[in-house]
């Protein structure tokens, strides 16, 4: 499944776009964004995906667990850490 620009929150779109060209900078910026503004489950979802794509398995699972905690009723977030 491919996400379209309309499905990604505007506050996170720039991180997704930057990840394609500079993954490390996108991860650093997104970590700072989550820390400062509490991006919620969606922010942690993207962070988990970025870590996963960068080969950082442990960090990916931890971010996925944070997403699960912040979205207790979501079927996707309940299973996300298993996929990572």
Give the topology:
Blueprint: H1 10-21, H2 23-37, H3 40-54, H4 57-70, H5 75-83
Structure description:
The structure is a single chain. Helix 1 packs antiparallel against helix 2 and helix 2 packs antiparallel against helix 3. The protein is 77% helix and 0% strand. The chain is mainly α and 84 residues long. The mean pLDDT is 87.
How many strands?
Answer: 0
- Poorly predicted spans: none
Helicity level: over 70%
Largest sheet: none
One letter per element, helices H and strands E, the order comes to: HHHHH
Specify Rg, calculated over alpha carbons. Answer: 12 Å
Query: Which outline best applies?
Result: globular
Give average pLDDT, whole number. Answer: 87
* Strand residue content: under 5%
Secondary-structure-based class equals: mainly alpha
| Span between termini | 16 Å
Tally of contiguous helical segments? 5
List the main descriptive attributes of the protein structure presented here.
mainly alpha; 84 residues; single chain
Please outline what is shown here.
With 84 residues, the protein is an all-alpha fold.
């Amino acid at each position: 499944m491919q996400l379209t620009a309309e499905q990604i929150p505007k506050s996170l779109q720039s991180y997704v776009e930057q990840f394609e060209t500079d993954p490390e900078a996108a991860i650093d910026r997104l970590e700072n964004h989550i820390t400062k503004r509490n991006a919620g489950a969606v922010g942690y979802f993207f962070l988990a995906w970025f870590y996963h794509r960068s080969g950082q398995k442990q960090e990916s699972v931890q971010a996925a667990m944070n997403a699960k905690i912040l979205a207790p009723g979501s079927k996707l977030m309940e299973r996300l850490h298993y996929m990572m």
